[in-house]
Amino acid sequence: MTGMDDLIHALEAEYKREIPEFRPGDIIRFYERVSEGARERLQPFEGVVLKISGSGTRTMVTVRKVAAGVGVERTVPVYSPKLERIEVVKRHGIRKGRPYWLRRVARIHKIG
Amino acid sequence: MALELIGKKVGMTQWFDGEGRSVPATVVLVEPAVVVQVKAPEGDGYAALQLGAGAVEERKVTKPVLGHFRRAGVSPRRHLFEVRVGDPGAFSVGQEFGVDVFAPGERVDVTGVSKGRGFQGTIKRWGFSSRPKSHGHKWIRRPGTAGPTGFRKVIKGKKYPGHYGADRITVQNLEVLKVDVERRLLVLRGSVPGPRTGLLRIRKRDA
Predict the structure, then answer these.
(1) How far, in Å, CA of B54 to CA of B69, rounded?
(2) What is the pTM of this model?
(3) Domain map of chain B by residue range?
(4) Chain center to CA of B6
(5) Mutate which: A2, A11, A40, A59, vs B, most B CBs within 10 A
(6) What letter does residue B65 receive in the DSSP assignment?
(7) In 3-state terms, what secondary structure has residue B11?
(8) Looking at the 3D structure of chain A, how many domains does it have?
(9) Who's near B10: CB < 8 A, 6+ residues apart?
(10) Residue B61, exposed/middle/buried by CB under 10 A (0-12, 13-18, 19+)?
(11) Rounded to whole angstroms, how far apart are CA atoms B156 and B171?
(12) CATH number for region B4-118+173-204
């Protein structure tokens, strides 16, 4: 039957919101809502975008940073209500769609 | 009241639950149902509602069935089905039920016909293990023995290759994530049997 995907997209539209444009290789920062007991606070996570997968409201983004000498990669749904906002820190003109070689780059802020 | 409605599988997507976790979800288009006949223990021998759902052109309905709808005073529907109820006196002919009988957080059972898979071997149909493809093995996906030696017959119901799928399957206890009354859509957590556009029966679970 035609139009069935439209029905699903109409439902997903509820999660649609303003997200800044970013590409693999860019440095982004997202703020995640973390609840500690009754209190809720925002936890920022800043790093380089290694991968963007999925489409529409089902888009996932993998972000890598180096924390205390240890590489940390987080994959989160871009349209998750848990993410308060996403900021683009720095844009890089990376040509690859999956810049995994950035894992071996020590100073990511200097690339591009 | 274990009310049952008919719906159509629209497809699957992901949904965010109350805690912001992403969960698998199925979207179902629910057809509004109208009571065509109320069956009471006196006369019918049991208590049930006969419901009609789905649009259909009047010329496509056979005359006897059309007469049945005429008597109820409702326009003909594509599907007629029965739902057992405790107290048939609480319902009347012509009464309508829509998606709004469901509420988010509620649990439902969904019945449908699973995807037909044709003639399948024991591995896909019954979950048998396959044997190594190398190291001198000759039979990799064959069913193995039919039974003990000297037994002279095969036990009835022995798991063998054959037709798989297209069975009536009920998935119980699915959580309702969202009810969209305007679009007649229901978002359920998890998967339901059958292909997209497949017909489903959605049953409210008694608390």
Answers:
(1) 13
(2) 0.82
(3) 4-118+173-204, 119-165
(4) 8
(5) A11
(6) H
(7) strand
(8) 1
(9) A4, A7, A8, B26, B27, B28, B29, B185, B196
(10) middle
(11) 27
(12) 3.30.160.810
Q: What value of ipTM does the predicted structure carry?
A: 0.77
Sign for the pseudo-dihedral over CA of B148, B151, B155, B160: positive
Element (H, E) at B31: strand B22-31
- Any idea what the CATH number is for the domain that residue A96 is in? 2.30.30.790
Helix (H, G, I), strand (E, B) or coil at B79: strand
Nearest in space to B98 (alpha carbons), one of B26, B31, B1, B197: B31
- Nearest to A41, CA basis, from A89, A77, A80, A82: A82
- The minimal CB distance from A80 to the residues B10, B22, B27 is found for B22
Residue of chain A nearest B197, judged by CA positions: A1
- B101-110 pLDDT, tens digit per residue, is 899 989 999 9
Residue labelled with tokens 């936890």? A43
* Mutation site, B8, B10, B182, interface A, largest A CB count within 10 A: B10
Per-residue confidence of chain A (112 residues) as pLDDT tens digits? 567 888 888 888 888 888 899 999 889 999 998 888 888 889 999 999 999 999 888 899 999 988 888 889 999 999 998 888 899 998 888 888 898 888 887 666 555 4
Q: Determine the residue of chain A that is closest to B17 in CA distance.
A: A81
